[in-house]
Design a protein that fits this description.
By secondary structure, the protein is α/β, with parallel strands linked by helices. It has two domains: 126 residues, no CATH class; 355 residues, Peptidase S8/S53 domain (Rossmann fold, 3-Layer(aba) Sandwich), CATH 3.40.50.200. It is 26% helix and 19% strand. Strands 13, 15, 17, 18 and 21 form a five-stranded mixed sheet that branches. A four-stranded antiparallel sheet has the order 4-5-3-9. A three-stranded antiparallel sheet has the order 2-6-7, with no helix packed on it.
Length: 569
């Protein structure tokens, strides 16, 4: 199993000034414009030590994706026949030719690499900026984010030797930029929302704060404890988002007195992450995720993956942490069966090659039998959080076609939450499993917002769940919290409880959900037909909810009992 800490090889001082050997070079990645908010400050100091990751070309990604669909499509004879860690590595490992060629090039330039993944598809190497500029025909510079003051070292283009272009997927960090705003939790406490209303005065949702009892009533979620020891959830937390056991205990005592109040999570730490207890933690996301997954998925084991001990904007590298989280999960012999994540970035801040590489990791997890879910964002069509824009801004990783993107709703009966992220990817093509559902929505849209989105892109979200006025105990405060951060753990909890029933019946877990959701399970989801999401500016509108799939609430919200019936449980 891969060590949870970085394994970097330091260069000997005598080698730091070595002149790289020259080869015929070609541009590998470039960006024409800086991401919104960044300006060029000046060249990086030649002595600045850069830790660069090289993603080596994986030997059979096409075969991996084909296998993912084969084991995830209900009509397939191989449905549920998930792959072992070793079988996955056969798809994602680089060829011996690729490994040898890249390492020989580094050795020629007096550099040594360290493998960062069990499959060997990620390697790391350190070098001064001056060496990196020469080695990659790059111009590593300092860029500053105007609103936060955060500074990063990046280049707007880099090259690799022509004979190695087919062996190297990408070099990171180079043309991908961190998004200091987007890296924060999507729990949108700043978004205003009217008080919850309901159609009658007897249901448990007719209150100002959403509680587990409300969602149990709304989605028919059982309180019966899960029983399988092989069923668990992994919930990543990034950049000092630390849950507190004392807050969870108070939450359970108040809302789930039938659960042992001393129930807690299992801690995993990566990249210097931690989970200090006894502090007056103001973490919204960490406490929300633990309180609501443990509070809804009764007795399901929850693992909290704490990644990084760096506060934003002091150097947090969100994409790096996504890489390491996926690498950790793929290195496990028996990974948790559900992984909801409530963080993201705007798609434009991540290079296409990096987005594709990360997405292939989620394909690999799906082929292992892991249901990967991400919140769709809280900015409507303007990205992770609301901002002005001239064209619609998709969010990442929610646009990856090999995971399930979860949008947001509110009110009873449910209506689309106006902040629910949704739209179409500019990087990923629309997958076949959603072609029919999305084609109907495009016909419904007609010329509305024409030219503001990529009509052939992967459409998101896939589904939705309640996302307004959740009660969360944190830092001496107590709710209300809004955002798709609330929706993701809710939907994931339903899936985890269904997995428990499947395991008890001797059947495989649900794994990659989307082929199932867009086929046999669609009838068990509650279609949300009212509402819309935020626009870019006053001159445009967002997307509308309507009958069938839409770019605000996807296919709709879950109903545990109906989904269980679809599974013939």
């Amino acid at each position: 199993m891969l060590s949870p800490t970085y394994l970097f090889v330091l260069l000997l001082p005598a080698l730091c000034g070595a002149t790289p050997m020259r080869r015929s070079m070609q541009v590998h990645e470039a960006r024409a414009d800086l991401p919104s908010g960044y300006t060029l400050t000046g060249p990086a100091s030649p002595q600045t030590v850069l830790t660069l990751r090289l993603a080596l070309a994986q030997n059979n990604i096409t075969g991996l994706v084909d296998t993912l669909y084969d084991v995830s499509t209900p009509s397939s004879a191989n449905y549920g026949a998930y792959l072992s860690k070793e079988k996955i590595e056969e798809y994602i490992a680089p060829t011996e030719e690729s490994s040898s060629a890249v390492n020989a090039w580094l050795t020629e330039n007096d550099l040594q690499s360290t493998s960062l993944s069990a499959a060997g598809d990620w390697i790391s190497v350190q070098m001064p900026a001056s060496t990196a500029n020469n080695l990659f025909n790059a111009d590593f510079s300092v860029f500053t984010h105007s609103s936060t003051g955060a500074q990063v070292v990046r280049t707007l283009a880099y090259s690799v030797p022509t004979d190695l272009a087919g062996h190297i997927d990408l070099v990171y960090p180079t043309v991908s930029f961190p998004s200091p705003v987007a890296d924060v939790p999507q729990a949108a406490t700043s978004l205003s929302a009217p008080q919850l209303t309901a159609d009658n005065n007897t249901d448990p949702c007719n209150i100002s704060l959403i509680t587990p009892a409300c969602l149990q009533w709304l989605y028919d979620i059982p309180t019966t404890p899960a029983t399988s020891p092989n069923n668990s959830m992994a919930v990543p937390g990034y950049a000092t988002e630390w849950p507190q056991e004392a807050y969870l205990k108070s939450f359970l005592e108040q809302y789930r007195p039938d659960i042992d109040p001393d129930t807690t999570w299992e801690l995993v730490t990566l990249d210097g992450g931690s989970d200090p207890q006894g502090s007056n933690s103001t973490s919204v996301e960490g406490n929300l995720d633990m309180q609501w997954t443990i509070g809804l998925a009764t007795n399901v084991t929850v693992k909290f993956i704490s990644v990084s001990n760096v506060t934003i904007p002091d150097g947090d590298e969100f994409a790096e942490y996504l890489i390491d989280t996926a690498t950790y999960m793929l290195g496990l012999d028996s990974p948790p069966t559900v992984m909801p994540t409530s963080y993201g970035v705007n798609e434009e801040s991540v290079s296409e090659k990096l987005a594709q590489k990360l997405c292939s990791s989620y394909a690999a997890l799906g082929a292992r039998g892991v249901s990967v879910l991400f919140g769709s964002g809280d900015g409507g069509v303007s990205g992770i959080q609301y901002e002005t824009c001239t064209t619609f801004v998709p969010t990442f990783p929610g646009v990856c076609p090999y995971l399930t993107s979860v949008g947001g709703t509110w009110l009873v009966p449910e209506t689309a939450a106006n902040f629910s992220g949704g739209g179409f990817s500019n990087v990923f093509d629309r997958p076949s499993y959603q072609e029919d559902a999305v084609a109907g929505y495009l016909d419904y849209l007609g010329d509305t917002n024409s030219g503001l989105y990529n009509a052939s892109g992967r459409a998101y979200p896939d589904v939705a769940a309640y996302s307004v006025h959740f009660d969360v105990i944190y830092g001496g405060a107590q709710g209300p919290i809004n955002g798709t951060s609330c929706a993701g753990p809710t939907f994931a909890s339903v899936i985890s409880l269904l997995n428990d029933k499947l395991i008890a019946a001797g059947r495989p877990v649900l794994g990659f959900l989307n082929p199932w959701l867009y086929s046999s399970a669609s009838s068990a989801l509650t279609d949300i037909t009212v509402g819309d999401n935020y626009a870019c500016s006053g001159s445009t509108t967002g997307f509308n909810a309507t009958t069938g799939w839409d770019a605000v609430t996807g296919l709709g919200t879950p109903n545990y009992t109906k989904l269980k019936a679809v599974l013939d449980l």
